Amino acid sequence: MTIHFPQERPEYCARDLVIVFPAEVDGTRVQCAITAEALEDHFGAPSLREDDLIEAFDAHRLPIEEAARDLLNEVGAKPVMMHSGYFRFCD
Question: Cα dist. 83→41, 42, 45, 48, 90 in Å?
């Protein structure tokens, strides 16, 4: 399985309090998301403000993408949502 993360700006979804970013799995575009709570708990976001969440995501993009890669390897070309609890097992 080939997994690639396009280097596009992540998007903030205020309704769900998540940062959304794309992945491509064997050429199929897949939505990945990480919760604001996970960014606060594990990646140093100081608040739920969009700027703080994007900054935390950008500063830790590689480990976040690696976690998404692990999930995508398990589920295939399906959207993934990473919650704070998931990263407790990654630390």
Answer: 10, 10, 14, 15, 12
| b/e 74-90 (16+ beta carbons within 10 angstroms → b) | eeeeeebbbeeebbeee
Domain containing 73: what range?
3-90
Q: How many helices (H) and strands (E) does the chain have?
A: 4, 5
Query: Rounded to whole angstroms, how far apart are CA atoms 2 and 16?
Result: 28
- What integer pLDDT is reported at residue 30 of this predicted model? 97
CATH number of the domain enclosing 32: 3.30.160.140
Does this model's pTM top 0.85? My answer is yes
Q: Residue 57's closest CA among 88, 17, 27, 26? A: 17
